[in-house]
Amino acid sequence: MQTAPGETRLSGLVAILGLIALLVGLIVMILLPSIRLASWGILLVGIILLALAFIMDYRRVGRVLTGRRGRFGTATTVMVSIFIGIVLLANAISIGNYHRFDVTGVAQFTLTSQTKEVLGELEKPIEILCFFTPDNVVKDYTASLLSEYQNHTDKLSIKTIDPDLNPDQARQYNVIEYAALYGTVVFKSEYGQRSVYGPEIVERAENAFTSAILEVTGVVQKKVYFLTGHGESSASSDYSSAGDALRDNLYKIGVLDLLRTPEIPEDLSLLIIAGPRKGLTSDEVNIITRYLEDNGRALILLNPDAPKEIRQLLSLWGIDIEDGTVIDQASYAAPNLGSPSVPRTRNLFQLAVTYFPEATAIIAQEEEEGEFEKLALLWTSQDSWLERNFDPNEEPEFNEGTDLKGPLALAVLITNLPLEETEEQPAQEEAGIRLIVFGDSDFASNQHFYNGNNGELFLNTVNLLTAGTELISIERKVLPFRRLVIGPEATRFIQYSSIGLIPVIVLLIGAVIWWRRR
User: Fold this and answer.
1) Are 439 and 319 in contact (CB under 8 A)?
2) Which of 18, 109, 283, 374 could form a disulfide with 49 if both were Cys (CB 3.0 to 4.6 A apart)?
3) DSSP code of 45?
């Protein structure tokens, strides 16, 4: 059965009309997005016309597709129209539906999961006003970043304003001359407004914008304070990597000097004491003690020879800090015997590789019935000991009666037990984690933060103290230098294989060649 010539010409005409309808629908969708529903209607008409043309002339189209040689004619016209129509339809769909894939090693062009979660939970509209002069170097970057924000929510409206041409609007939003010079982004909602200035955009970009969104929507961010004044590590210097990671996870960071401000801030969620080198005054110890007794939370990271005031404070919580350095010959970060390594099987976080440069041990006092419970978070192997007089230039040896035999706790979690209900005390105090103490502070310093899983350990510990048991992961926007952390067994394999493995392989290959050619 053959198709009549009139039907053939008609199918070709229908195919061309369908192609024209698809093209018109695509143009309308691009130029007039406000009437997108109408453009989809035109596209639907085009699809129906192309399908009708294919049905009317499907036999000839089939011969063109399956035959050894295509013939010019109506069937070819229908086939080409269908192909072009599919391309046009795919482009029309991609206008409102698309997905970006960031294949960079640190996902530097993608918003973090925390920001996406914040945007996904927005319920109230937020107005974003970008005050930039035309030649501002931050303007294009800010526009690109905020455009990515809009891809994850429809609650943001963005407007760019030139402060030189609109000085009244700049003054209305408190954009002074200095702020206008370097650029300012104002976030505004019914709860208030927050300004993010040019230098802050360059330094913290996504962190600053997401924090501003949280603030103007009434969400209270957790704030972590680092104690200062006693030679501690600082989030602005040797703990800057840890500070950046905390900000990536939407924590605020503050500095607390109890000598200048002898009280605990009301917005403090966690107090971090990182490697103090000098002693604390009795007033400072009393303030910290009262804070912990009043359901406070603290993370204390110590080193060998910790100040006696800190030891006395921790003694009240049932743990002692011993003098000496932990040695673990069975598990260490080569080539430093004084850097015990903890595998997945010896830490409650089940992190693959963590290590602690020159750590001391956390010793739990003898069990007594009381209101605290102690739990080791990380511990060493059976072959470890606490070396009282460690010298990194000498081979350490265990001395019976002087050194303390392992396994030893490198970090301890302390939680308070709920009070029993009595007539005098009818209400029970809620049990919760109060304090985590590490025998090392260097593992979270800039030098070691990105090595192994040290960074994850620090962040998970902070989250455990501030949020409960849910663990978090690090999402960095910088490419860190990562050190390969290997243990003693891997070290021995590398040493022996580099000496004998390659010569043995060469000899074996030579023997095989000789055997085949003899």
Assistant:
1) no
2) 18
3) H
For residues 439 and 321, the answer to whether their CB atoms sit within 8 Å is yes
Average pLDDT of 502-518?
77
Give 105-114's long-range contacts (Cβ < 8 A, gap of 24+).
105/479, 106/476, 106/477, 106/478, 106/479, 107/475, 107/477, 108/477, 110/148, 111/148, 111/149, 111/152, 111/206, 112/206, 112/248, 112/475, 113/475, 114/210, 114/248, 114/249, 114/250, 114/475
Q: What is the pTM of this model?
A: 0.64
Q: Is the pLDDT score of 507 beyond 80?
A: no
3-state secondary structure of 153: coil
Is residue 335 reached through a cis peptide bond, with omega within 30 degrees of 0 on the bond before it?
yes
Closest CA to 483 of 272, 341, 326, 330: 341
pLDDT tens digits along 375-391: 899 999 999 999 988 88
Q: How far is CA 120 from CA 191, 192, 249, in A?
A: 18, 20, 16
Query: In angstroms, rounded to a whole number, what is the distance separating the alpha carbons of residues 464 and 429?
Result: 19
Whether residue 202 contacts residue 138, with contact meaning beta carbons closer than 8 Å, is answered with yes
Contacts of 324 (CB under 8 A, 6+ apart): 304, 360, 361, 386, 387, 388, 389, 390, 403, 404
Check residue 487 and report its DSSP letter: -
Say if residues 244 and 108 touch (Cβ distance below 8 Å): no
Burial 174-210 (b: 16+ CB within 10 A, else e): ebeeebbebbbbbbbbeeebbbbbbebbeebbbbbbb
Question: Minimal CA–CA distance to 158: which of 185, 139, 135?
Answer: 185
Coil, strand or helix at 102: coil
Cβ atoms of 281 and 235 closer than 8 Å: no
Task: Assess contact for 225 and 254: CB atoms under 8 A.
Answer: yes
Q: CB-based contacts of 378: which residues, under 8 Å, 6+ apart?
A: 342, 346, 347, 348, 354, 409, 410, 411
Q: What is the DSSP letter of 361?
A: -
Which is higher by pLDDT, 376 or 499? 376
Q: Which of 470, 463, 466, 458 is nearest to 242 (CA)?
A: 458
Q: Find out whether 360 and 514 touch, Cβ atoms under 8 Å.
A: no
Please say whether the dihedral angle defined by the alpha carbons of residues 162, 168, 172 and 176, taken in this order, is positive or negative. Answer: positive
Cα–Cα dist 131/199, whole Å: 14
DSSP 8-state class, residue 408: -
